[in-house]
């Protein structure tokens, strides 16, 4: 169970609409208010089904303890599914909450908001140190006796080393100066300061639902899949289109850099001698399964397949630098449950993974610089600028001392201070790594692009190339993900849009990623023919709102869907042949920007904005009246 405990001046709710799993309630249950209350937002999870009574007892203990600390006798129990991606069955959830309610009524004034209803609520948090607390409650299993199989989590030696490694944290400024983190002035670099705190504390768990979760649902992009393992998502047609466009763009960018696209298996033998050694050098938790009495693991990157492929290849110095790329749909990492939320951190994700074989360290450093710039360019085209992320450079002290000018050039390239994590000795397979880290509305950082210089795996996988003298040599290997996980790009775009909206800007996706690029709204049935003509002339994703709704509501719906261009068609437009276009990017909240233009001018404008980017078909029926709802 996930618990969020808020000490509030008041909490009040009102039910709006039932869901298919709504419990039956009386009218008196449809509204509720408590003053000076401890509100327990709660999500009952699938793991709680092992022992729901134990979960309820532990939740009661936490609520009683906190209520005593904040000195209140009023408790509101509030079901809040958004706290978890791995929910229990509705029947178990209601049972647990009723058990909690029954256990508290003798000691407190208790109200419980109904389960399975969409509700409007208002809450006023008091803001003292104990007013916001989160708790994860795990049940004691009722059946851990003899004969029950329990999966043992596979933890690599690198992951263990990561938790004990001694890091020296510095801030590198573009002038080449290394500053101690404690002495650096972050006043002009607030986001960097937030990122530094996040990295040093190593706190990845979230205590609130980040804004992008509500947006990914409302925009019908993605949602949790309760029928799967935590951290595995479902993607609706709009989300699948966005993912597909991003995937194609990153693959195209890699191809332009000379990468050959390959495909490799998802599953590997855990006891393969080479792979077993690499598993212990990669800081990630693995999914393990048994197949034909062999212990297998699901890949967490494309390294295994590409390195085994490289081992079997004949490679000449003429081929170097040699690049291979694969879009791993999916990579699997068994991230800890408290860290899983929305699209930010997943157990199954899509990772563009490129590897470069280099003749020596000088060539590797040169390629690292090229791929650093490539990653900047990729994220910019995706809609994530240098100002949106912070740079982390992780390296050994020896590598830094030998390559100071090169490392400083990385800071100069982004023209701002960067975080440096330095080790006296090498714990991992790489000597140098960079990450671009997006800091979201909850002050959590997530890595996007990355490149690493690997000095171990050519030997481990027995990868060789033939040099000019005919001698067999080991290459230096670069690992590169130009964008990071595709899902994290979507997360970053949604979080960025949310933060911009808080600053008074109109939220939107880049036009090339918008599922609908133009929406045509006919005022009346007689304007439908011209609306269809406009749609047929535009070379983009255009739909028609033909529903029996008011024009005002149709315009508001287009705004809620972040449609970049909205065309309203009436008698005047039919007569003139021109169109009045609401341009979202140029609009202010409650003040739309309208431009009169020809259909050809609108078409040219959109083609110019999306030039060089992948194109995709409209993901849903062109007429809105024909579309199902996914939420």
TrEMBL record:
Main location: cytoplasm
Compartments where found: Cytoplasm
Keyword ATP-binding: yes
Domain of life: Archaea
Domain Aminoacyl-transfer RNA synthetases class-II family profile span(s) in chain numbering: 211-510
Coiled coil: none
Pfam (any one): tRNA-synt_2b
Protein name as annotated: Threonine--tRNA ligase
Gene name, Swiss-Prot/TrEMBL: thrS
């Amino acid at each position: 169970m996930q618990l969020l405990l808020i000490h509030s001046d008041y909490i009040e709710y009102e039910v709006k609409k039932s869901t298919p799993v709504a419990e039956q309630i009386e009218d008196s249950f449809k509204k509720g208010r408590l003053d000076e209350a401890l509100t327990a937002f709660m999500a009952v999870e699938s793991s709680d089904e092992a022992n729901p009574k134990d979960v309820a007892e532990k939740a009661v203990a936490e609520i009683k303890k906190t209520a005593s600390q904040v000195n209140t006798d009023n408790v509101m129990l509030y079901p809040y599914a958004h706290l978890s991606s791995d929910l229990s069955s509705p029947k178990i959830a209601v049972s647990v909450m009723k058990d909690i309610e029954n256990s508290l009524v003798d000691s407190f004034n208790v109200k419980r908001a109904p389960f399975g209803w969409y509700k409007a609520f208002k809450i006023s948090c008091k803001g003292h140190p104990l007013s916001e607390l989160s708790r994860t409650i795990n049940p004691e299993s009722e059946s851990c006796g003899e004969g029950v199989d329990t999966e043992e989590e596979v933890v690599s030696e690198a992951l263990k080393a990561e938790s004990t490694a001694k890091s020296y944290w510095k801030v590198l400024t573009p002038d080449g100066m290394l500053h101690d983190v404690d002495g650096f002035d972050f006043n002009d670099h607030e986001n960097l300061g937030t990122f530094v705190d996040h990295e040093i504390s190593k706190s990845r768990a979230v205590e609130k639902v980040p804004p992008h979760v509500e947006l990914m649902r409302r925009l019908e992009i993605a949602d949790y899949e309760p029928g799967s393992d935590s951290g595995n998502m479902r993607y609706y047609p709009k989300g699948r289109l966005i993912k597909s466009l991003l995937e194609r763009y990153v693959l195209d960018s890699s191809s332009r850099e000379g990468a050959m696209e390959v495909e490799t298996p998802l599953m590997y033998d855990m006891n393969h001698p080479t792979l077993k050694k690499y598993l212990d050098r990669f800081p990630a938790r693995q999914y393990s399964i048994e197949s034909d009495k062999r212990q297998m693991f699901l890949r967490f990157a494309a390294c295994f397949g590409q390195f085994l492929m490289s081992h079997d290849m004949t490679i000449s110095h003429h081929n170097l630098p040699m690049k291979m790329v694969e879009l791993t749909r999916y990579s699997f990492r068994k991230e800890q449950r408290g860290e899983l939320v929305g699209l930010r951190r997943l157990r199954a994700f899509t990772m563009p993974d490129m590897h470069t074989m280099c003749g020596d360290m000088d060539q590797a450093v040169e390629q690292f610089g090229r791929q650093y710039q490539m990653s900047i360019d990729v994220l910019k085209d995706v809609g994530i600028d240098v100002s949106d992320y912070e740079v982390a450079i992780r390296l050994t002290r020896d590598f830094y001392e030998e390559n100071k000018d090169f490392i400083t050039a990385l800071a100069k390239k982004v023209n701002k201070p960067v975080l440096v994590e330095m080790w006296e000795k090498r714990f991992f397979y790489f000597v140098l790594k960079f990450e671009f880290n997006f800091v979201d509305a909850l002050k959590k950082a997530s890595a996007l692009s990355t490149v690493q210089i690997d000095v171990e795996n050519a030997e481990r996988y027995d990868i060789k190339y033939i040099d000019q003298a005919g001698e067999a040599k080991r290459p230096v290997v670069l690992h590169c993900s130009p964008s990071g996980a595709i899902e994290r790009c979507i997360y970053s775009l949604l979080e960025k849009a949310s933060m911009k909206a808080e600053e008074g800007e109109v939220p939107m996706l880049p036009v090339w990623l918008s599922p609908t690029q133009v929406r045509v709204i006919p005022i009346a049935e007689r304007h439908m023919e011209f609306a269809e003509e406009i749609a047929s002339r535009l070379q983009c994703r255009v739909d028609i709102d033909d529903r029996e709704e008011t024009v005002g509501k149709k315009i508001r719906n287009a705004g809620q869907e972040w449609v970049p261009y909205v065309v309203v068609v009436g008698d005047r437009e039919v007569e003139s042949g021109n169109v009045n276009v609401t341009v979202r990017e140029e609009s202010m909240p409650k003040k739309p920007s309208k431009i009169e233009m020809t259909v050809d001018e609108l078409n040219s404008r959109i083609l110019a904005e999306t030039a060089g980017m992948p194109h995709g078909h409209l993901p849903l029926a062109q007429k809105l009246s024909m579309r199902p709802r996914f939420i």
